[in-house]
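Structural prep section.
Before we set up the soaks we want a predicted structure of the protein with zinc ion in place, mainly to decide which crystallisation condition to try first. Input record follows.
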Amino acid sequence: MKCPFCAHVDDKVIDSREGRTGDTIRRRRECLKCGRRFTTYERIDEIPYMVIKKDGRVLSSMTHTLAADGKTQTIKGTGNKPDGTTDDFTVVMKKVSGGSGWGGTWEDTDVKFTSPDEWEIQAYEGDGLSFNTPAYKDTLSMKFDGKDYPVTGLPYADTVSVKRVGADTIQGTMKKGDKVVMTVTSKVSKDGKTRTSTFVGKDAQGRDVHNVVVYDKQ
Ligand SMILES: [Zn+2]
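Run finished without errors. Recording the tokens verbatim:
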């Protein structure tokens, strides 16, 4: 940082504080040559590219773009699946608190995957189901006996148990450790063509979830 009085390039920072909106840092500096003091403001506005890795393997890479008004950001990315295929996604996030820059709290409003994960669901041992996700080479098999079955790939839960609560209704309970984080009630319509699932609980960020999802049988 050049001194505005004598143009010397070395200074010491004597005070740093975050700006009012949380996206600037105000620094009080003292020139090491002439000893005069000046203030700089640094904007925190660069989060252009992010790569998420696991065990040295790139899981996904994404580019964040902040809207001109600072209120929404768009994240475009590519995920890499273990079978070598990729999955493009777009997430639009809305600022829920904080100032005009990157700082603050964001909430996702719109998530689009160009190739949603395919699940193969099969009957399992008479009264249960197997969920197979070919892209992740992962299979979850469980009986509807209310026992906890370990799951992988869910950010918010370690185990899932499922029991029947009616002729057409099953209820799933997802736990992280001993704590119930989510319950899912899934009801098949009388004609068997749609299934309505109601998710109630908390997501990986601890936010309340109450989602009703209607699936059409294909
Ligand atoms: Zn100076």
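Observations: The mean pLDDT is 72.
Flagged for discussion at group meeting.
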